[in-house]
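Hi R.,

Here's the chain you asked about this morning:
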Amino acid sequence: MDRRLILASKSPRRYELLKQVGLDFEVVPSRVIEDFVRTESPQDHVIRLAEAKAGQVGSEYPNRWVIAADTIVYIGGSILGKPQNGEEAREMLHRLSGQEHWVLTGFFVCHLENEKSDKEAVQTAVRIKRLTTAEIEWYVKTGEPFDKAGGYAIQGIGSFMIESIRGSYTNVVGLPLCELIQMLSRLGAIRISECGMRIAD
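And here is the predicted structure, written out as tokens:
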């Protein structure tokens, strides 16, 4: 029986983070559409989508542990999604320039057959330096802002604009590893010993 964890995300950043800590897993992207509900809070938004993604993939693999997550950037009460074109990327970067914003990740872990699940939201404060128009134009032309919440990648070229962070760095990348590993251990999905981290029997 395949006991590997399932990451319900096609994000290469989440993939690399889980690989980094040595977890045995496979990727099964969810087919959930990341829609916005006008009345919900940022925290409710990321938890709802993470739970929907985990539930959709979990229904296909009920005897496996499934991890799903959703990350957003918000500032001044507004959620910044993933820019679809250069104009949107420029607008987001101008808005973030010289300001502190929040990165919020909701994650959900479940094993449907064992009727076990848990969820959590983690937020990190990030301050962007004051960007010049030339810096914004150059960064947009690199192509990195696309498919990134808020229009930047803290682990990539976008690191040049990060003045400070308060909270989890991996959360800004896309998955708060400290809190996730604690949850997996608490649920009994993994065991950590002096020999390392492994999937629980």
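One quick note: The mean pLDDT is 94.

Cheers,
M.
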